[in-house]
Write a structure and sequence with these properties.
Elements: H1 2-7, H2 9-35, H3 43-51, H4 65-75, H5 79-99, H6 103-119, H7 126-139, H8 149-165
Length: 182
């Protein structure tokens, strides 16, 4: 089943439609935050996530205490950074998905944002977006087959991957180009 999603042309076509729909959602969400009349400010949202965390109805305890601590001790004190990362992150995830360029990376970071929003208690469209993001992630490189990944991934592999990781698979030639005895 995985091979179907990762290698089949028809599956690539279906995932292309999914990633474009998903990308449009991310792109427009980020664009509205970037170009809105009022500057995007996440401090109210983050403050509400800290004061009203997602609670277990049976025990009354916070379900995601480590996430709440992250918001309280990192995100809120660095809200200016968060105000930059969220809109531009949404926009770039959308752009990557629509163009089919670095598709798996874009889907991964989109999923991360979906889960961050859900941990804070925002349901909205996040479960649907997460489900579509998982479909793109499962398809892997096939998700960008009809997009920029067709050219970008081979270029990255040839120019960056081989330089960074090329020596790992090659035997050490030792002195005078001869393989040492092991």
């Amino acid at each position: 089943m995985m091979e179907l999603w990762r290698k089949n042309r028809w599956a690539a076509g279906l995932v292309t439609v999914i990633r474009i729909v998903l990308g449009y959602q991310w792109l427009t969400s980020g664009w509205h935050k970037i170009t809105g009349e009022v500057a995007f400010n996440a401090s109210g949202y983050l403050g509400n996530a800290v004061t009203n965390p997602v609670m277990d109805k049976a025990t009354g305890e916070a379900l995601y205490p480590t996430y709440n601590a992250f918001i309280e001790h990192f995100a809120l004190p660095n809200v200016k950074l968060i105000n930059l990362i969220i809109p531009w992150g949404e926009f770039l995830v959308g752009l990557g998905l629509i163009l089919g360029t670095l598709t798996v990376t874009a889907a991964f970071f989109g999923l991360m944002m979906n889960f961050m929003f859900m941990f804070a208690g925002t349901i909205s469209t996040n479960p649907w977006l997460a489900l579509l993001g998982v479909a793109v992630l499962i398809a892997g490189a096939n998700a960008g087959r009809f997009g920029g990944d067709r050219w970008v991934l081979p270029w990255l592999k040839a120019n960056i991957g081989n330089k960074l990781f090329g020596k790992l698979g090659k035997p050490d030639r030792g002195v005078a180009g001869k393989t040492p005895n092991v």
